[in-house]
Amino acid sequence: MNDQPLLAVNGLADQSALVVNGLTDQPPPAARGLADRPLLAAEGLTKRYGARVACRDVSFELWPGEVLGIVGESGSGKTTLLQLLSGKLTPCAGRVLYRDGDALVDVHATGEAVRRALARTQWGMVWQNPAEGLRLGVSAGANIGERLMALGQRHYGHIRGAALDWLKRVEIPEDRIDDPPSAFSGGMRQRLQIARNLVTGPKLVFMDEPTGGLDVSVQARLLDLIRSLAMRMNLAVVLVTHDLAVARLLAHRLMVMQGGRVVEHGLTDRVLDDPLHPYSQLLVSSVPRV
Amino acid sequence: MNRDPQYNFAYLDEQTKRMIRRTLLKAVAVPGYQAPFASREMPLPYGWGTGGIQVTASVLTDQDTLKVIDQGSDDTTNAVSIRRFFQRTAGVEVTTSTEKATVIQTRHRIPEQPLREGQVLVYQVPVPEPLRFMEPRETDTRTMHALEEYGVMHVKLYEDISRHGRIATSYNYPVLVNGRHVMSPSPIPRFDNPKMHMNKALQLFGAGREQRVYAVPPYTSVKSLDFEDHPFSVDAWDRPCALCGAGDSYLDEIVLDDGGARMFVCSDSDYCARRRAESAGSEVA
């Protein structure tokens, strides 16, 4: 633990940079023009299952192009929070606001039709288990094309062209376009899931442990891919993970959750290098080092 | 044939028929929408036409003339049994002539001869849900119908083209009814799909096991789903019917012997017989 003071200095340096530039230095420079208003805002989100509280009074704002990591141990309410944000669960209290152009949509108060339309066009959802996000019975091309067809594209050639383009972008060989995902490796399935979500050019992607169950070299490639795509497409990402290394690589900002509560919230480097809350300190110190 | 007095008219009791007619009205009001109804146990197994029989029983009056076809033919077991069932329980007039019939119950075909106003065509439907293949959950498919989320139907067609180079779905080909609901036309060949469009007759669909009825009212648009660069097309044969010489009808392949000999004949037996009778008549004259 010799390097602790040094890291603390680094953390301080980050914080001072933050103070100088203000909060809007979070998104990449290209997005700064658009980033004058948050894309997604959670206000006092609470979800109870009977007497158990899965998620307690969570509030935050997410800006265009920003990657927000949510870390914490199993059962800390990360996934519940993600499902609340994406409208899959209804909160007991609080609300989620999403900015659609100039309109502000209350995700849970609006109709199901609007919510599903948002989920299909402006949002993406990458699951830990690709079987949940993919149609395993139909080919990779059809998986990628589904959102386009849902949006009313009716030209087979164009849809196939887009599918080929996206296979290339997620580094899946183009000759696998007619193979079903059930014939793909775990890493390829994850990349296919990402392609399937990004084909409509969404603004916000929810990821639930996208690298869970992958071996480290495959993980590294996937992380690299997610990072470059998020940067290029100016994607806002809510990333749920228990893997601090993943959070370090991808997330601009981190929220640490414990028992359904956000116990710490800050820039990734600051939280990981200089954790303030005892639980964050425990979390950071329990990462095994090679 | 006189009605068996042991049975209520057309087998079902009046309250049941009333319930089914009410559901049919709802189905006609929302073309292509699958209206749930309380399907009754019928004296034949599911899959043999229990839905179609219940719909026929509900719309039948003693003035009606009934025709029953199975795979286009009036003389297959299923058609004969159902026809006899209604002869016995309703005492109605029966016919094999498409022209004379007022109610036609069918499985797998639409008659070749164009229907006219006032006729009712009743389809037997095994699986009424066109989205079932892509989405097994009934709760989800209902939501998808409600919100007009029909993208997955094209995923199925996309798969066809990527696998076979063309849309290989040859029966039960999904259609969009009245520009709103995607509907399963029941397992009729896609050759028959264009006949549903702006048809003058009332088309009713009954699925007994799945407890759904749906309808296409007269003069309603029925469009087969397709892609711009792979438009919907119907099958064509390179030869006419071997019996009546018709070049415009749906042909069945009949194997004649073990040596590979086969012939192609109209699947619509009434259409074929009528054409042969006409040409025989003209030869005599």
Characterize the structure shown.
The complex is a heterodimer of chains A (290) and B (285). By secondary structure, chain A is an alpha/beta fold. Chain A has helices spanning 4-21, 78-85, 112-121, 130-133, 140-150, 156-169, 186-198, 216-232, 244-250, 268-273, 278-285; strands at residues 40-49, 52-62, 67-71, 93-100, 103-106, 123-126, 204-208, 236-240, 253-258, 261-267. In chain A, the strands form two sheets. Chain A has a six-stranded mixed β-sheet with strand order 6-7-8-3-9-10, sandwiched between helices. Chain A has a four-stranded antiparallel β-sheet with strand order 2-1-4-5, with helices on one face. In chain A, helix 5 (140-150) packs across helix 6 and helix 6 crosses helix 7. The two termini of chain A are 14 Å apart. With 285 residues, chain B is of the alpha/beta class. Chain B has helices at residues 14-29, 50-59, 77-90, 138-146, 151-164, 193-196, 269-284, and strands spanning 35-36, 65-70, 93-94, 103-107, 120-124, 175-177, 181-183, 202-207, 212-216, 222-224, 251-255, 262-266. A seven-stranded mixed β-sheet of chain B has the order 1-9-8-5-4-2-3. In chain B, a hairpin with a 6-residue loop joins strand 11 (251-255) and strand 12. In chain B, helix 1 (14-29) crosses helix 2. The longest helix of chain B has 16 residues, at 14-29. The A-B interface holds A 112-113, 116, 120, 135, 138-139, 141-142, 145-147, 149-151, 154-157, 159-160, 177-178 and B 134, 143, 147, 149-152, 154-156, 158-159, 161-163, 226-230.
